[in-house]
Every structure is written in structure tokens, then in C-alpha cells.
Design brief:
Elements (H helix, E strand, L loop, with lengths): L26 H11 L4 H5 L3 E2 L15 E5 L1 H11 L3 H7 L19 E6 L1 H4 L2 E3 L2 H8 L6 E3 L6 E2 L4 E3 L10 E3 L4 H19 L4 H19 L7 H9 L8 H7 L1 H16 L2 H10 L13 H9 L6 H5 L5 H14 L23 H13 L6 H5 L2 H19 L9 H32 L4 H7 L4 H16 L1
Parallel strand pairs: 1-3
Antiparallel strand pairs: 2-3, 4-5, 6-7, 7-8
Helix pairs in contact: 7-11, 8-11, 9-11, 10-16, 12-13, 18-19, 19-21
Length: 474
């Protein structure tokens, strides 16, 4: 073991090596590299600081790769000295550098102190760095963890998609050299981001909405017979065949596989011509329900290379895409209220935010370890059934939202409009009830319990089951 120069009582040690940070690296990652450069265990190096809490860990107890560190003023001075670089260099490179924590002393006593956090709670998504790129710069292919948005995850030089660092799984990257459209999408995103800025939209919000739209398609695509692009990509990034553990690979590979479509959707939603198609589909000055064969969704399907997707996207009510369409229509009609999500096309509702890889892997692990627990719904009810139920409920919600501000005009017109939408929404909820009843019974829930929870007597319950089964046979 090599002692760090100056740490034996010297409050201002001077490092023997110059260890420069990577751009947007986590402070915890830099500390790990410093320890490795001095031939020390990371834990031994961390003893130079007084810690106010314990490092974050996964459920199994292993240390989280996305752990982050906040330092007080003497703590930052110590780290700068160990790196052999000035504090202003670290301040420019490390997003957590200037962030304070109430648990840390002000530093008047000169004691270096530190507190643990998770990276996502400090400065956004955290991903692994590319080890060959690290070796090229530092001479050692060590692990680096950096704050990296999803539109910058491709290492073009080495053909790698850099993975989220917040999940309890071993992969740091996926090979994407065999799917060149992924790297091409990253290059294309630069122009899309510039277009967003010119349109007065934050590129990050545009990307988040497009990602939510495509992630929703991804969940439904398992049952799209005409979808061939994504399965091919998924097998590529899985090393040739994802069939052995398809459910896990669909979680791990999702963001890399759908990235080209996310950029294409973001580009489409920023196109004024596409917004005009939404307006025309809505009836323009003569409002009408959005049609299943609308020009907007048909054109959107074409722009993502799926001419058949239009009707599927158009009838997926209540998702992030229909919310965007609704905002566009309200703005055109001048029906929006005060500033807020109702008239903000880029507002992404919390319920529309796609599940993260870390979250999905936790659910998958619990389902495999504890069959019969509350998570069995996902494993016993097919993704198609779950998507149908969610779509029906979201569609009813979207219809009811359209009633806001729709109570002006003659009594007959307003009454007719309200009753039509309320009746249609009630029908959607009835269908959602039927689908849920059937799914619950098929999942092994006793019909008597289902009837009680749904407040259905045996007759309607049987009718619901028969109606659903007849529809499935047809």
C-alpha cells in the first residue's frame, strides 16, 4: 500500500500524481480513481474525510455505482490537493462540486467532511463511462461514472451504448456497432436540439416527451405482429440472441433499441407541419373527435419507418402522445387556461413517465423471488391485457379533461356535448372494468372476491366474462 503524501496529520496534503477529472464525472468516481492511482483501497482513501452518513447501497447490500459525494470547503480543498489540480478545474468538471449539505460543518475548524448521496438526486441521470476511452486518456481502463443524458450515451469510437449506473446489474455497456442507426440518431439529435431551442422549447423536455411516447409503444410492441425492427436490434445488443432471458433483455436493452425512434418522434413533434395535421384532424374550426385514421398519426408512423403504426397510435388514448395532441389543439383554439400543463405541449405527466431500468429490474427480481406476492399481477396478466386496461382508463380520463371550459353556448349544444362525452367515457370505464374482472379471475383471484370488489352481482360478472371471451374469440 502506498501512503497518500501529506495525509498523516498534514491538513493540506499535496498529491504525488496529477489526476484530472472527466467532464461531468461524479465526485465519488473521481475518488475511486484517485485511490486506484495511489494503490489504495477506496475505503482507505475516504478515511481522510469525516463522513456524516453511510454510502448508499442496493437492496442486496452491495455499493451503488451511482453513489455521489458532497464536500464542505476543507473537503474540497483536500480533494483538489490529492488530484494535483486547482479547485476551479474541479468546479468546472464536477456537477456536485459546489453543492452544499446542511449536515456538513461550515469548515471553520478546517475539518474535511463529506456526505453521501445518489447521483440522480444531485444532478440528473448517471451512466458508466467507456473504459477503452478512459484507458486511452489515463493509461488505465478503470471504471468512470458520469452524469450523461440519454441522448449522449453512444461512444461512437468503440460502438458502445453506455448504461445507466443506478441499476443493480453488471453491464456497463451494450454493443451497438451492429446497429449503426443508433449512433446515427445521436448525431441527428444535435440538429433536433437546435430546432427545439429555436422553437422556444427545452431540448431535454422534448426528448423526455418523445422518450415517453416511444417507451409506451415499446410496451405494446411485444404484441405487434408487424414489428420486426426492434426485435432484430434487441437480439443484436444482447450479443446475438435475447431469447434466453427475453424479459430481462427487454428491460436492459430498451433505451438503446428505441433511441432512433425517440429522436425521430422528437423531430416530428417539433415540426409545425405535423402540428397542423393535428389541427386538421381535430376538425380545425369545427371540433370533432380525433379519428383513428388521422393524417397526423399516419404521417408519424411513416416518419418512424412503420406505415402501419398510425391507427395503433391514434387509438392509444390517454398516453403522452394524445396529451401532446390535446395541448396543441387547445392552443390553436385559444382554449387554454393560465400557464400550466394544460396548454404546455411539452408537459410530461408523472403517470406518463416511463419506468426506469432500475425500477423494472427491481420489480422483475421481486416477481421471480416471491411468486404469489402483490407483484404477481405483472407475471400472470399479459402485457397486452394490462395495456388494454391502462389505455381504456387513460382514454376516459382524456375525454373527461376535454370537458373543462366546454360549458359555453346554447343549453342544447352544451347538454348534447356533455352527455356525449360523459356517455362515451362511461362506456370506456365499463370496458376497463370488464377487462380487469377477466384478468383478475384468470390470474387466480376467486370470482366471489372479484365480484365483491367490483360491486357486481354474479349475473353481471358472468356477463362481463362471457362478453370478453366472445370478443377474444372473434
Amino acid at each position: 500500500m502506498v501512503d497518500v503524501p501529506g495525509t498523516d496529520g498534514d491538513p493540506h496534503p499535496v498529491g504525488a500524481f496529477r489526476i484530472a477529472p472527466f467532464s461531468r464525472e461524479t465526485t465519488s468516481s473521481l475518488m475511486g480513481r484517485i485511490a486506484g492511482r495511489y494503490g489504495m483501497e477506496a475505503k482507505a482513501l475516504r478515511s481522510c474525510w469525516q463522513w456524516r452518513n453511510y454510502p448508499p447501497a442496493y437492496d442486496g447490500g452491495s455499493a451503488r455505482a451511482d453513489a455521489e459525494v458532497l464536500l464542505n470547503t476543507p473537503g474540497r480543498q483536500l480533494l483538489a490537493d490529492l488530484c494535483g489540480v486547482t479547485e476551479d478545474v474541479l468546479a468546472r468538471a464536477l456537477p456536485s462540486w459546489g453543492q452544499e449539505d446542511a449536515k456538513l460543518p461550515a469548515g471553520k475548524d478546517g475539518v474535511p467532511a463529506a456526505a453521501w448521496r445518489t447521483g440522480g438526486a444531485v444532478a440528473g441521470p448517471v451512466a458508466f463511462g467507456c473504459r477503452p476511452c478512459t484507458a486511452r486518456r489515463t493509461g488505465a481502463g478503470v471504471r468512470v461514472v458520469r452524469y450523461t443524458p440519454r441522448w449522449q450515451r453512444v461512444c461512437v469510437r468503440h460502438g458502445r451504448w453506455l448504461m445507466d449506473a443506478d441499476a443493480d446489474q453488471p453491464l456497463e455497456y451494450l454493443h451497438v456497432r451492429g446497429v449503426p442507426e443508433v449512433a446515427a440518431a445521436q448525431r441527428r439529435w444535435t440538429g433536433v436540439a437546435r430546432r427545439a431551442v429555436r422553437a422556444g422549447a427545452e431540448p431535454a423536455r422534448v426528448f423526455a416527451l418523445a422518450h415517453a411516447v416511444v417507451a409506451r409503444w415499446w410496451e405494446q410492441a411485444l404484441h405487434w405482429e408487424r414489428e420486426t425492427v426492434w426485435p432484430g436490434r434487441l437480439h443484436q445488443v444482447a450479443g446475438g440472441n435475447a431469447g434466453g432471458d427475453l424479459e430481462r433483455w427487454r428491460i436492459v436493452g430498451r433505451d438503446a433499441v428505441v433511441f432512433p425512434e425517440v429522436v425521430a418522434v422528437a423531430d416530428a413533434l417539433l415540426d409545425p407541419a405535423m402540428a397542423q395535421l393535428v389541427w386538421m384532424d381535430s376538425g380545425a374550426g369545427r371540433p370533432r373527435a380525433l379519428p383513428a385514421d388521422g393524417a397526423f398519426c399516419r404521417r408519424l408512423g411513416e416518419r418512424v419507418g412503420r406505415e402501419w403504426l398510425g391507427p395503433l397510435a391514434a387509438t392509444d388514448y390517454g398516453g403522452p402522445l394524445t396529451s401532446w395532441m390535446g395541448a396543441v389543439i387547445r392552443i390553436r383554439r385559444g382554449a387554454g387556461g393560465p400557464p400550466g400543463y394544460d396548454n404546455d405541449p411539452w408537459w410530461l405527466r408523472q403517470e406518463h413517465q416511463p419506468a426506469t431500468m432500475a425500477g423494472q429490474l427491481r420489480v422483475l427480481g421481486k416477481e421471480k423471488k416471491a411468486p404469489g406476492s402483490g407483484t404477481m399481477w405483472r407475471s400472470t396478466v399479459s402485457a397486452e391485457q394490462r395495456a388494454q386496461i391502462t389505455s381504456l382508463v387513460n382514454s376516459a380520463e382524456e375525454q373527461l379533461i376535454q370537458l373543462r371550459g366546454a360549458q359555453t353556448g346554447s343549453s342544447a349544444d352544451v347538454a348534447q356535448h356533455l352527455l356525449r362525452i360523459l356517455s362515451y367515457s362511461a362506456g370506456l370505464l365499463d370496458k376497463a372494468l370488464q377487462h380487469t374482472v377477466v384478468a383478475a379471475v384468470n390470474a387466480g383471484v376467486p370470482p366471489r372476491d372479484v365480484a365483491q370488489w367490483a360491486k357486481l352481482p354474479p349475473g353481471p360478472l358472468a356477463d362481463a366474462l362471457n362478453a370478453y371471451q366472445d370478443a377474444g374469440d372473434g
